[in-house]
Design goal:
Strand order of the largest sheet: 1-6-5-4-3-7-2
Helix content: 10-25%
Largest sheet: 7 strands, antiparallel
Number of strands: 7
Strand content: 25-35%
Number of domains: 1
Oligomer: single chain
Order of helices and strands: HEHHEEEEEE
Radius of gyration: 14 Å
Number of helices: 3
């Protein structure tokens, strides 16, 4: 996948940079959850990790519940807060598509499927592929 074709906003983003090489072991949901050992997705046909107590449904509600198992609570602000870790959940047509995690410098980091991990501004990956941010979460930074 050509990042600049799939995510045109990255072309002019001052925050965009590739931060690690492609990896097949984990996806964006796992990356947001800080797990680089598993592919997180609720589809029961995939050999993917999903929290046992959360329904295996590709719904915003199920993804919210999955992040709650990690101590996250919903919030409204994308602003950087000292000592707070944030996650943004993206959806298209009501179905979750992507998650990004806020870094300590206020930028966001994403894993793009089996491709690279990148740093970016929150809106840089919004669009036709991932849709838009539909939920934000916060918890104390470890």
């Amino acid at each position: 996948m050509s990042l600049l074709l799939e995510f045109p906003a990255l072309r002019t983003s001052k925050a965009f940079r590739i931060s690690s090489p492609p990896a097949r072991e984990y996806n964006c949901i796992a990356w947001a959850a800080q797990d680089t050992n598993a592919w997180w997705w609720p589809d029961p046909m995939l050999t993917a990790y999903w929290p046992a107590e959360i329904p295996r449904e590709e719904t915003v509600v199920a993804f919210c519940s999955a992040f709650r198992t990690l101590g996250y609570e919903e919030c409204e602000s994308t602003e950087l807060e000292e000592g707070i870790q944030k996650i943004a959940l993206y959806a298209r047509g009501g179905s979750p598509t992507h998650a990004a995690r806020q870094l300590a410098n206020g930028r966001w980091t994403s894993k793009l499927g089996k491709s690279e991990d990148i740093q970016h501004e929150l809106g840089d990956v919004e669009g036709e592929l991932y849709g838009h941010v539909v939920k934000l979460f916060r918890r104390p930074r470890a």
